[in-house]
């Protein structure tokens, strides 16, 4: 497995863990649990999110991405910042339940849009094959098509 594919798998895995962890912490908070008391809910989410962000930066550096022309990626980054802000508000103690519920709902909307953008990009790059490795496959297809035109 090439390094890009491994980092991409790490990124997607951490994204799923992060989303699951966010929803899990929301459920615990609604049931009155103290999130800071348990290392699983107090420390682990920060570790997962750090690896998630690091793998995203690595994919941007390694991939054929130009942040100024990849509008889907810029939108995804803006949605990520919105998700972080809404998520912080949703999990913050001392805020009324209605405000926290609204923040949780908006954070979930951001999650949905981020995942939708990622899947749409993956489908577009891989020509409908979402299990393929887009970076490598696109390059190989373009090189093959180019060499066919020269003959």
Description of the molecule:
The chain has one domain (3-150). It is mainly α and 151 residues long. It starts with a helix and ends with a helix. The protein contains six helices and no strands. The model is unreliable at 134-151 (pLDDT under 50). Helix 1 runs antiparallel to helix 3 and helix 4 (71-90) runs antiparallel to helix 5.
Catalogue the unreliable spans: 134-151
Radius of gyration, in Å, reads 19 Å
Shape annotation? globular
Which class do the helix and strand fractions yield?
mainly alpha
Q: What's the story with the biggest beta sheet?
A: none
Mean pLDDT: 82
Any idea how many domains?
Answer: 1
How many helix segments? Answer: 6
What is the assembly state of the chains in this entry?
Answer: single chain
Total strands: 0
Q: Report helical residue fraction.
A: over 70%
The CA-CA distance between the termini, in Å, is 32 Å
Strand content: under 5%
* N-to-C SSE string, H for helix and E for strand: HHHHHH
């Amino acid at each position: 497995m090439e390094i890009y594919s491994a980092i991409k798998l790490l990124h997607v895995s951490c994204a799923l863990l992060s989303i699951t962890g966010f929803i899990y912490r929301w459920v615990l908070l609604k049931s009155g649990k103290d999130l800071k008391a348990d290392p699983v809910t107090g420390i682990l989410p920060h570790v997962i999110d750090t690896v998630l962000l690091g793998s995203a930066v690595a994919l941007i550096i390694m991939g054929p991405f130009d942040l100024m022309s990849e509008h889907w990626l810029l939108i995804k980054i803006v949605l990520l910042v919105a998700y972080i802000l809404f998520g912080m508000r949703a999990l913050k103690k001392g805020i009324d339940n209605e405000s926290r519920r609204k923040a949780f709902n908006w954070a979930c909307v951001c999650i949905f849009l981020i995942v939708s953008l990622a899947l749409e990009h993956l489908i577009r790059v891989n020509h409908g094959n979402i299990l393929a490795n887009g970076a490598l496959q696109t390059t190989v297809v373009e090189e093959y098509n180019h060499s066919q035109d020269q003959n």
